[in-house]
Amino acid sequence: MNSQTGKFIIFFGILIVIIGLIIYFFGSKLGWIGKLPGDIRVEKENFKFYAPITSMILLSIVGSILWRLIARFLN
Prior knowledge:
two-stranded antiparallel sheet; mainly alpha; 2 helices; 2 domains; single chain; 75 residues
């Protein structure tokens, strides 16, 4: 292992703490996640199916933008 690996591990640890704090303090305000137009939800008597397609696409776009910004600052 080199120092670059240590930087990534520290970064991801801090990121997990930040995400945890956001969910802890603002979890009640994040109820719209998973209820966007395009998220598929089928509920029947003995069957439930849920596919958050739009939410995952939005999360992927935001994650990609953040990843590029962070990579730019680490290099």
